[in-house]
């Protein structure tokens, strides 16, 4: 059986594009590696842009064996 944990990682402000950039993916990598060091396994993630296309976020789900 697994325990699941979902987090939101807010990314930098976007002025001309709502897409993730290199800084955003570096922050995502850092979070994934930090959680992996604590025994969490990445299950899924998704990038969500806001309706105003100014700020987005990753929604990330991890799991850990109980």
Helical content, roughly?
10-25%
Order of helices and strands: EHEE
Average pLDDT across residues?
86
Kindly, what is the distance between the CA atoms of the first and last residues, rounded to a whole number of angstroms?
Answer: 6 Å
**Uncertain stretches:** none
Q: How large is the radius of gyration?
A: 13 Å
Number of beta-strand segments: 3
The proportion of strand residues reads: over 45%
**Major sheet details:** 3 strands, antiparallel
Characterise the protein shown here.
24% of the residues lie in helices and 48% in strands. A three-stranded antiparallel sheet has the order 1-3-2, covered by helices on one side. A hairpin with a 5-residue loop joins strand 2 and strand 3. The radius of gyration is 13 Å and the shape is elongated. The mean pLDDT is 86.
Essential attributes:
elongated, 3 strands, three-stranded antiparallel β-sheet, 66 residues, single chain, alpha+beta, 1 helix
Topology:
Layout: E1 2-13, H1 22-37, E2 41-49, E3 55-65
Antiparallel strand pairs: 1-3, 2-3
Short synopsis of the structure:
This protein has one helix spanning 22-37, and strands at 2-13, 41-49, 55-65.
